[in-house]
Amino acid sequence: MSQFDVTIIGSGPGGYVSAIRCAQLGFKTAIIEKYSTLGGTCLNVGCIPSKALLASSHYYEELQHFADHGIEVSGEVKVNLEKMIARKQAVVDQTSGGVKFLMDKNNITVFNGVGSFESATSVKVTKADGSSEIIESKNIIIATGSKPSNLPFIQLDKDRIITSTEALKLKEVPKHLVIIGGGVIGIELGQVYLRLGAQVSVVEFMDRIIPGMDASLSKELTKVLKKQGMKFYTSHKVQSVERAGDVVTVKAENAKGEIITLEGDYSLVSVGRRPYTDGLNAEKAGVKVTDRGQIEVNDHLQTSASNVYAIGDVVRGAMLAHKAEEEGVMVAEILAGQKPHIDYNLIPGVVYTWPEVAAVGKTEEQLKADGVAYKAGSFPFKALGRARAGGDTDGFVKILADAKTDEVLGVHMIGARCADLIAEAVTAMEFRASAEDISRMSHAHPTFAEAIKEAALAATDNRALHV
């Protein structure tokens, strides 16, 4: 029987990063993965493949505007979806292979199969051929991630009525893609197929898309995507999704009680994700699971079984790969007797559309609800020399600061390269910077990052220089 100091169930970003950190700290470490490839949802059917398709479709869209830059392309520009999907898979394979390399490099034992508890210190690994083995471990980390959610009345056939997993490997560009859910995943995949020529309609129950982010970002992204041709039906409650042949009919009720009907050839159901604990047998380890399917943990991510921990999508908090990674490292360091800490308020959120959307800290809505006196400063990308030079003038940066202390409480941005720019805001807030601190830092010219400095100037004394 194999014995380990730490065993991680699940090889997504939280799991494999935790395994690496455990190995670095001297623990004999194992990781269990039910699929044949490592990396979990993020690397295989989530973050990485969706970004690969977003990049490919972005290049195609950019090509349509090369003439604006004095570049003339002769002949018809065509989309080869099969080749685009194949490239996406190559990126996935390379990335997953990289995780396998890291496991080998750090002497981490990999078990392929479904991990299920036999007790708080033993896990059965059931392999694809039905055989199984038991491994013993002093400590166990649950990192089993999440799966796409569904509405109870929708029958997913994974052919025409699909989830994000199937949307990453379509064999044709939809004529009309009806997306149920206006969150991050739906909007990102919607823009992929919009660029490739599909008509895209988004049905959202809330009164705006990306409802978890600052309302100003939602408003701006809606405006930009409408300009690109995407259609939105917000404040609409889906009543039914039916398929007849190659036609999918979606019926939804608006705020007035009226029923609208949308017909498409595909419908993407993107209504969030649920924690995945199927087959885990958590009760055998004495691990409590909430009514929502989440593993109960304390502030140290420790479950009701003292030697069992849980991280990532399977516990409370945002379902983000980088949040899972931070938690994986934190647990490893706790086991080593260290005292790590995570500030969940400073976990950034990103939407990888173009323009990109990114945010960290409190939204205006949250500050108002909490009765916090604040001041806001914004700066539009269209006032940036770099944005005009590249033709990426949509968007803005908004900084929210405490009205009395000037400490930065939230940064919200939409525009080119915001997925990378948000790191400056996270760094500043980690060191509890004031808006004036940021405004006095030199930013290279011309860059997109200048928008952060200008927004900080605007928040400090309404003294942005270039508007």
From TrEMBL:
GO molecular function annotations of the record: dihydrolipoyl dehydrogenase (NADH) activity; flavin adenine dinucleotide binding
Origin organism lineage: Bacteria, Pseudomonadati, Bacteroidota, Flavobacteriia, Flavobacteriales
Organism: Flavobacterium tibetense
Family: Belongs to the class-I pyridine nucleotide-disulfide oxidoreductase family.
Stretches assigned to the FAD/NAD(P)-binding domain: 4-328
Reaction(s) catalysed by this chain's protein: N(6)-[(R)-dihydrolipoyl]-L-lysyl-[protein] + NAD(+) = N(6)-[(R)-lipoyl]-L-lysyl-[protein] + NADH + H(+)
Keywords, alphabetical: Disulfide bond, FAD, Flavoprotein, NAD, Nucleotide-binding, Oxidoreductase, Redox-active center
Keyword Oxidoreductase: yes
Protein name: Dihydrolipoyl dehydrogenase
Classification via Gene3D superfamilies: 3.30.390.30, FAD/NAD(P)-binding domain
Domain of life of the organism encoding this protein: Bacteria
Cofactors (names): FAD
UniProt EC number: 1.8.1.4
Residue positions of the active site: H445 (proton acceptor)
NCBIfam families for the chain: lipoamide_DH
TM stretches of this protein: none
